[in-house]
Amino acid sequence: MATEFDRMPRNGWSMLGLLFGLSFADTAGLVWSIREAATMIRGEDAVSQLVAAALCLASGIVLLILWCGFFTLQPNTAAVLLLFGEYKGTARRPGFNWANPFYKKLRISLRARNLNSEKLKVNDQRGNPIEIAAVVVWRVHDTALAIFDVDDYTHYVQIQSESAIRHLASSYPYDATEDHQLSLRGSMDEVSKALQCELQERLGKAGVVVDEARLSHLAYAPEIAGAMLRRQQAEAVVAARTRIVEGAVGMVQMALAHLERDKIVELDGERKAAMVSNLLVVLCGDQSVHPVVNAGTLYN
To answer: How many CA atoms lie within 13 A of 285 on its CB side?
Structure first.
């Protein structure tokens, strides 16, 4: 595994002034040497001037190569520096910089990126087909790992994110059937945290940091959506009926206790049963109750 280390480039503006001064001096020396050699067609002085002109020309070529070492970096952008295939460090300082002109500079963005996965059709923990998608916020942290340890880190993030989402969907049920059971629909925060931890474990090999991962789409597959909707409606009706019956029984108990405590009326077992039946019908019925006036007694 490659290990990133910083390479601090030189300030571009100071190198610009230095190279400009050297280039001006070299150009002036070349012009002067050629002019002096032209006035001395023969003799040792003419040869020395020609040698000086050749040296100025060679230094000019070197300066021309040095001029190719300037480069700029925007904020949250890094440059991986390579010298004939050998890693020489990562430059992160934004602005106008200068480095060895023979360095190959591979620019890489350090900004946060969004990955909106496609809708994946997978089976949940119970084997029910569901559709799931997620949004992943990630960024490059280690440039050496991102460049050298994987072939294409953006494609690597996409494939590993899809694999992690599929694994997450198969690890939890869509809906919880027991209390305190984690589910995809009912435990979004816990599921998102689990997805982020799994993605970080997978993408850390590529020098990537996962800032956030959340489900963006969750639904039953179309072929079972209708059946699951009826099941959810039935469960909701059963839960509502259970709550209504519990409340009705409590109200009946309270009414009987209140009557006995205040001695409003004396009720035997048969009358209590009739009263309980009537109250439960009134409290638990779906339709409105129509009162019936009994002109006789309970036994006629």
So the answer is: 10
Q: What is the pLDDT along the chain (300 residues), one digit of tens a residue?
A: 678 888 899 999 999 999 999 989 888 887 887 777 667 655 556 677 777 778 888 888 998 999 999 999 999 999 999 999 899 999 999 999 999 999 999 999 999 999 998 899 888 888 888 899 999 999 999 999 999 999 899 999 999 999 999 999 899 988 777 767 788 888 888 999 999 999 999 999 999 999 999 999 888 877 655 666 666 666 667 777 777 777 777 877 787 777 777 666 666 677 667 767 766 666 666 666 666 655 555 554
- Answer yes or no: do 145 and 101 share one domain: no
The span from the CA of 159 to the CA of 260, in Å, is 72
> What range defines the domain where residue 259 resides?
225-284
293: in domain: no
Residues 117 and 211 in one domain: yes
> Are 216 and 230 contained in the same domain?
no
Task: For residue 47, give the amino acid letter.
Answer: V
Per the CB < 8 A criterion, the answer to whether 114 and 181 are in contact is: no
**Domain end position, chosen among 167, 196, 220:** 220
Whether residue 4 is contained in a domain is answered as: no
Per-residue burial over 11-38, b if 16 or more Cβ lie within 10 Å, else e, is ebeebeeebeeebeebeebbeebeebbe
Classify 234 as helix, strand or coil. helix
Q: Which of 62, 88, 108 is the last residue of a domain?
A: 108
Q: How many domains does the chain have?
A: 3
Do 71 and 28 fall into the same domain? yes
Query: What strands, in cross-sheet order, belong to the sheet with 70-73?
Result: 10-11, 95-98, 70-73
pTM: 0.69
Report the amino acid identity of residue 41: I
Amino acid identity, residue 23?
S
